[in-house]
Input
Amino acid sequence: MISYVERFRKSERKCIATGQVLSKGELVRFVVGPKNVLYPDPENKLPGRGIWVKADRSAIAKAEREKLFSQSAKRSTTCAENIAEQVENLITSRIINLIGLSRKSGKCICGYEKVRDWLKKDMVKVLIQSSDGSDREKSRLKTPENGSFIGWLNSKELGKAFGRENITHCALASGGLTQRIVEDAQRLRGLRIVTDRNSFRKDEMSK
Output
């Protein structure tokens, strides 16, 4: 019988850029496709041998700059010049889609009053606030104890998940999709250049 530790280690991979052994949730998978073109595979579904890089813009840039993708694949590969941005966009779209699915299942709501009501009822597992929202307004809501905070999606991106133009406040209840959203959001955090300092509020960093 396979132990928990063995199962856990099987979900780990080594980053070709940093040399770190990390969980798949902290990495981005790449595969070599037709004509030796490198494709990002953030959903870990494409066929072929995976090449793993830490979900960090500098790590991906290093892998591209130092031809580490080709070294790992043991053949010359080509990729888009803006591959880090491409990965960022793919993961962002994935998060937006997952939030939309969570909304349809009743596990996600938006709007200040609704989020505040869920917080009072201890229903919130994840507090999401747009990176470009008002600092004063966002400070009125706090991440619940043992909850998670996501603050590096902008209001238009959050709005897409709800079919609206802009969203500032959003909350997720417990559920399978919620965990997937948190994991993808953590990957996005390392890929995204955030201009809003409040996206990484000191009081939320440990959440």
In short: The domain at 4-79 is CATH 3.30.1230.10 (Hypothetical Cytosolic Protein; Chain: A;). Residues 83-104 form the longest helix (22 residues). Confidence is low (pLDDT under 50) at residues 1-9, 195-207. Strands lie at 12-14, 21-23, 27-32, 38-40, 51-54, 108-110, 126-129, 148-150, 169-172.
